[in-house]
Amino acid sequence: RPQFLSPKSSPAAAMSYREIRSFVEYLRHLGYPRLISLDNFRTPNFELVADIMDWLCHRLDPTVNIPDDITDEPHRIEFVKKICEVVAVKTRIKMNPKRLYGADMYAVKEMVKVARMLYEGMRAVTDTSNPSQPAGSLSGSTEAPPDHLLAGKLADLKAAKALSSQIVESGARLHDLLGRDGDNREAREKALAFLDSISRNLDSTTERDFIEKSIKRMMRSDTDSLEQMKSMCAALEKDEARLRSQIKKKQADVERAEKRLQNMAGVRPAFLEEYERHERELRHYYGLYVDRQRNLDHLEHELDEMNRQEQLRMDENERRMKKMQKRLREEEWRLLRGETEINANEPLFDQDESIDEDH
Question: Is residue 11 predicted with pLDDT exceeding 60?
Answer without folding.
Answer: no
